[in-house]
Automatic annotation (TrEMBL):
<dbReference type="InterPro" id="IPR016662">
    <property type="entry name" value="Acyl-CoA_thioEstase_long-chain"/>
</dbReference>
<dbReference type="InterPro" id="IPR014940">
    <property type="entry name" value="BAAT_C"/>
</dbReference>
<feature type="domain" description="Acyl-CoA thioester hydrolase/bile acid-CoA amino acid N-acetyltransferase">
    <location>
        <begin position="1"/>
        <end position="64"/>
    </location>
</feature>
<feature type="active site" description="Charge relay system">
    <location>
        <position position="153"/>
    </location>
</feature>
<feature type="active site" description="Charge relay system">
    <location>
        <position position="279"/>
    </location>
</feature>
<feature type="domain" description="BAAT/Acyl-CoA thioester hydrolase C-terminal">
    <location>
        <begin position="124"/>
        <end position="334"/>
    </location>
</feature>
<dbReference type="InterPro" id="IPR006862">
    <property type="entry name" value="Thio_Ohase/aa_AcTrfase"/>
</dbReference>
<protein>
    <recommendedName>
        <fullName>Acyl-coenzyme A thioesterase 4-like</fullName>
    </recommendedName>
</protein>
<dbReference type="GO" id="GO:0006637">
    <property type="term" value="P:acyl-CoA metabolic process"/>
</dbReference>
<comment type="similarity">
    <text>Belongs to the C/M/P thioester hydrolase family.</text>
</comment>
<dbReference type="Pfam" id="PF08840">
    <property type="entry name" value="BAAT_C"/>
</dbReference>
<dbReference type="GO" id="GO:0006631">
    <property type="term" value="P:fatty acid metabolic process"/>
</dbReference>
<dbReference type="GO" id="GO:0047617">
    <property type="term" value="F:fatty acyl-CoA hydrolase activity"/>
</dbReference>
<dbReference type="InterPro" id="IPR029058">
    <property type="entry name" value="AB_hydrolase_fold"/>
</dbReference>
<dbReference type="Pfam" id="PF04775">
    <property type="entry name" value="Bile_Hydr_Trans"/>
</dbReference>
<feature type="active site" description="Charge relay system">
    <location>
        <position position="244"/>
    </location>
</feature>
């Protein structure tokens, strides 16, 4: 799926109410059309309901110890392995991935760590994520000490930092989608963004006035400091896109692999690389958006961010990566329960 030619630029479809279906209208026409659908009469039309929750999935608001999030629980008494679900720097509480994970048997907590406005970036440090991890780990329906951390984009930067350095967060596995170790998270959000601002001059725009963000990261061979991934003690799945214009995910994964080889923990690493895919590798069947409106925290401006990717390979990446992510989580969370 992709936006209709001529539609408003910069929009991104995201499911905000996971307990209602998304209606997808599928129509067949007598010839190939790229525009003007509303003026044509289809030969046949069908409506498909797309759901993000299975029957019986429960949604619980989490407001504990300053932590804000949403916990989705699979049907039944449990206990279930848990997933701490971290989205990127766009902020807000994004629930549809956790709802899907709960529909596949994982107790998943979507964590809000950029908002609300009254929470200062200085206050969002290791302890915030450690509290969230403990809330999930201590929930009565969650299988204690059978947790994973899943991050996308900036959420992957957080994931690599907390898994490498935290004395509290000890997951059975973790998944990073288009992230990087080149900007270490080991203090607070405020300090991470202050470090990133040192490279603000590397932000540039293309001829369509779309912001290309990937060059703000230092090169793997010459960063001032990077996450010591040699400290990671659990299986790690890296999902990377060959046309990512926001993060140098492929180059970062190659360097992570070399660092882990040198540290002796390369056997814990699995890397999936998708040529032609863009930065926003979401759950399958999410439309591909090459560029969208985005509140860029670094400069405190609303811009059009270039994410990259071509529609067909990106769609394939979303479906394949999701299935392999579920298999990875099942292997390391459910199998460990059975053992």
């Amino acid at each position: 799926m992709r936006p209709v030619p001529g539609s408003q630029q910069g929009l991104r479809i995201r499911k905000m109410d996971v307990f209602t279906a998304t209606l997808v209208h599928i129509s067949v026409y007598s010839e190939h059309l790229s525009e003007g659908f509303s003026q044509k009469t289809p030969l046949a039309t069908s409506v498909v309901e797309r759901w993000h929750v299975a029957p019986g999935v429960k949604r619980i608001n989490i407001r504990e110890e300053e932590v804000q999030g949403t916990l989705f629980l699979p049907p039944g008494p449990g206990p279930y392995p848990g997933v701490l679900d971290l989205w990127g720097a766009g902020g807000g509480l994004i629930e549809y991935r956790s709802a899907l994970l709960a529909s596949h048997g994982f107790a998943s907590m979507a964590l809000d760590y950029f908002g609300p406005k009254e929470r200062r970036w200085q206050d969002v440090d290791f302890s915030y994520f450690e509290k969230a991890y403990q809330i999930l780990n201590n929930h009565p329906v969650v299988q204690k000490d059978h947790l994973a951390v899943l991050g996308l984009s900036f959420g992957s930067i957080i994931t690599l930092g907390i898994v490498a350095y935290s004395k509290v967060i000890k997951p059975q596995c973790c998944v990073c989608v288009n992230g990087s170790h080149l900007i270490p998270f080991d203090k607070s959000l405020f300090e991470v963004f202050e470090d990133m601002k040192k490279n603000i001059d590397k932000l540039h725009v293309n001829k369509e006035n779309q912001v290309i963000h990937r060059d703000i990261f230092s090169t793997p061979s010459n960063p001032p400091v990077k996450v010591d991934v040699g400290r990671i003690k659990c299986p790690l799945l890296l999902v990377t896109a060959g046309d990512d214009q926001a993060v140098p995910a492929v180059e970062s994964a190659e360097d992570i692999e070399m660092m882990m080889e040198k540290a002796g923990n390369r056997h814990l690493l699995e890397v999936l690389t998708y040529p032609g895919a863009g930065h926003l590798i979401e759950p399958p069947y999410s439309p591909h958006f090459c560029a969208t409106n985005f509140n860029l925290q670094l400069i405190n401006q609303r811009v059009v961010m270039l994410w990259g990717g071509q529609t067909k390979p990106h769609a394939y990446a979303q479906e394949d990566a999701w299935n392999k992510t579920l298999a990875f989580l099942s292997k390391h969370l459910y199998n460990s329960i059975l053992h």
